[in-house]
Fold Peptidase S1 domain-containing protein.
Amino acid sequence: MAFLWFAVLVLFAGSSTARPNRIAGGQPTTIDRYPSLVQVEFREYNYMWTQNCAASLITTRYAISAAQCFDGPSFQLAQRRIRAGTTNRSSGGLVAYVLGVTYHPSYLSNNYNDGDICVIRLSGNVVFSSVIQPASIVAQGSVIQESVPVVHAGWGTTRQGGPPSAVLHDVEIYTINNTVCAERYAQLGPSYRVTENMICAGVLDVGGQGACEGDNGGPLYYENILIGIISWGYGCGHASYPRVSTSIASYTDWIASTAV
């Protein structure tokens, strides 16, 4: 059934090189390079819509994002919508409203960020075009090796505490050994827990590149295959603490069973 809805690809990382392209420390790009990437807009003060997160389309009716982008004490479905098919933040493209959200059962079942993934049902079908396409996602159980080039893309700030980007940016970084990443974050306390359901990526001990504020829910790509959802981290492009993404390979079967 999953193959009727979106492409699920087997991924064995380690033998190929990602697209050479360089969000913090990144550079401007265009939506035709990432046509499955959409903005998640929040309605603020009951009238103003502003991009605060991102998501990835998987069908004409469903998208996936970080659960945290569709949560909170005052969260309402009417306060979220997506904007697809535009390079520019909060303008252009196609707007679709959110009809429903399904969180992974493990989300908020503990005090950490495990299970930070949700399936979003849109109020209507989006129309695919050259700049609006479904993502190809990694197969269940795929192993993402360390030190392979991957890409973050989004409209978030280009530095810690800075303003959001007016246009889409991307940056090339590298996957980091999960155990090493977990040991680094453990220095900050027990709430910074890295699990086997997460992928760390950055430029370890160098920093300066990676996802930033406003990029959560957006993609982590390996050769244009969606392998992660930007979830959490300490700072932006931190040398010691790389950004952490939800590993889609832990949830592909759940996505397939939910987005129907």
In short: The longest strand covers residues 48-57. The chain has two helices and 15 strands. The radius of gyration is 17 Å.
